[in-house]
Every structure is written in C-alpha cells, then in structure tokens.
Amino acid sequence: MSQPLKPATYAIREFHQNEDILAFHAEEFMLTGCTVIENLWNEAELAEFRTALDAIYTQQTAEIGGESQLAVIKDKNIARCLVSYDEVFLKMATHERILKLLTRLLGDYFILSLQNGIINLPNQPNYQTFWHRDLQYQHFTSSRPLAINAMTCVDNFNEETGGTYILPHTHHTEKFPSDEFVLKHQRVCNAQAGSVLVFDSMLYHRAGYNASQQIRRGVNTMYSLPFIKQQINLATATEYKYAADKFLSQFLGYDSDADANVQTWREKRIKRNLSQNL
Asked: What is the pLDDT of residues 243-254, one digit of tens each?
C-alpha cells in the first residue's frame, strides 16, 4: 500500500507550511541541522572548479615549500582561502539560491568566514575523518545558527568516495554524543556532483574514507555572523579589491575586521556616515 502524500495526523492544531522549496530547506536545516540543495552547478562549471582547485593546491604547496611542510601541520590536500586566488570561487560563494537561504537563516548581515578546498584522495589517510565542529572547541548551543557551512560537492559524495558523515540534531547538544549514539545515528550525506550540503557549523560531522579509485573534491564555504573571526582576513587577502562593491565589501568582512587604532575606527565611521547622507 502506497504512503499518502500528506501525513495523517490526530489532535494537532498547528502545522508548519512551506511556501516554496527554499522554505523547506530552511525548515529541514533548523530541525536536523542540514539540508541538501541538488543540481546547483552544471558539469561545465564543475570542470572549472576542479581545474581551479587543483591549480591552487599546487600553487600553495609550492609557496610553503612542498607537501612535507603541509604534513607537519596536518594540512595536506587542503587548499585554503580559495576566493583570494580565483574569482570562480567568489561566484561559488555568492550563488543566489545560497545567499537567499542564508538570509532566511542568518539575517541580512553575514560574512564569508572561510572557503577551503578539500581533496580526498583514494585510499589515503585523511585527518578530516575525525568528528568535529567547524566552530572548533565550542561546547554550547544557540537558539539560532551562528555560522553555516555550504559544502559544494565538486565530485560525487557517497559511502564509497568518502562523503560527509553527520550526526543529525547535534547542533542542539553541548557534549559530543556517546559512542553508542554515534554508531547508531551517524549517516552519510549522499549527493551528486553539483549539489551543495548546507549544515550548521555546530553540527558534528566528518569526512568519510575514500575507498574508490576517484578523487573526491569538495569546497567548504562557511558563512558567519560578523562578530565571529574569519579564519584568514579576507580584506587583506583580497587586497580590498572589492571595496567599491557595497555587498562584497560587507560580505568579505571589510567592514567587520578589527581596526588598528581609535583614529582608524572613527575615520571609517565618519566616512560611512557621510556616504549614507549624500
């Protein structure tokens, strides 16, 4: 017998209604801690992302003196601060559907906190297989999200390739759950290349082991409320390249980084006040 399209209920007076698919993604995110937006990027765009990500990792490896240096700090196969190396990743970070969902969840003022590429090689150790939160070392809960990750699946994410594992609802709990809970409730987020996994940065998650013969690339873009410190100062990393763009200057944190002294703090606000009154 097929399941009814609408769940049967009894003695319930209040129901949540979604006016569109974006509202459903917001509902799913708030209740479970994550949601998957499918088919956000086409194959041509994914090919561009792969080429750019691999090139940036090669460049960054050379800049630091080789992979042996990265191994010292457990940073092999990670390309960091992508948006400051190639504008294709600014395009990724500012996709209209992602920004609309973020506005529903974080409000009107949020910034790009970090953007890292994760290259999960076949049959190789990967420290990201350890459970963690992306707001690290934090053991508290919040009634509203403070930061949100959007993991772009540049290649297919599944059990074989090492897709992202999550512990649903754990953005609402302070302590890391028991071993028994983890083993029973962990689940992998299966998503085709071109999809985006959106999850609360306080949700416990990890990468899976890549047992396939293919490279599994993902780009982890984290957005946060502006009082949370960026991983890398994007104002200096992008050399204030987008200062003339009102949205991008705010989005990249040009207006929310700490000022050097009192005079700089005041001059910035005087300039902003004058521009608003023109």
From this structure: 899 999 999 999
How distant, in Å, are the alpha carbons of 100, 108, 111, 205, 214 from that of 166?
24, 27, 24, 4, 22
User: Closest Cα to residue 223, out of 40, 96, 99?
Assistant: 99
**How far apart, in Å, are the Cα atoms of 110 and each of 26, 64, 100, 267, 278?**
16, 31, 12, 23, 25
Domain CATH code at residue 82? 2.60.120.620
DSSP letter for each residue of 117-146:
EEEE-TT---GGGS-B-SSTT-----SS-S
What's the domain range around 169? 34-256
Average pLDDT of 120-147? 92
Q: Which two tokens stand for residue 275?
A: 């521009």
Query: Do the domain assignments include residue 266?
Result: no
Positive/negative CA dihedral, 223, 190, 212, 129: positive
Q: Express each pLDDT in 33-46 by its tens digit.
A: 999 999 999 999 99
Residue 274 maps to a domain? no
Q: What tokens does 13 get?
A: 């007076």
In a domain, 29, yes or no: no
Answer yes or no: is pLDDT of 2 > 70. no
Residue-averaged pLDDT of the chain: 94
Question: Which residues pair with residue 35 across a beta bridge?
Answer: 198
> pLDDT by residue (tens digit) across 6-60?
889 999 999 999 999 999 999 999 999 999 999 999 999 999 999 999 999 999 9
**For range 219-239, the mean pLDDT:** 95
- Return the pLDDT at 269: 83
The total number of structural domains that make up the chain: 1
| Coil, helix or strand at residue 36 | strand
Q: Is residue 8 part of a domain?
A: no
Closest Cα partner for 95 from 251, 253, 205? 251
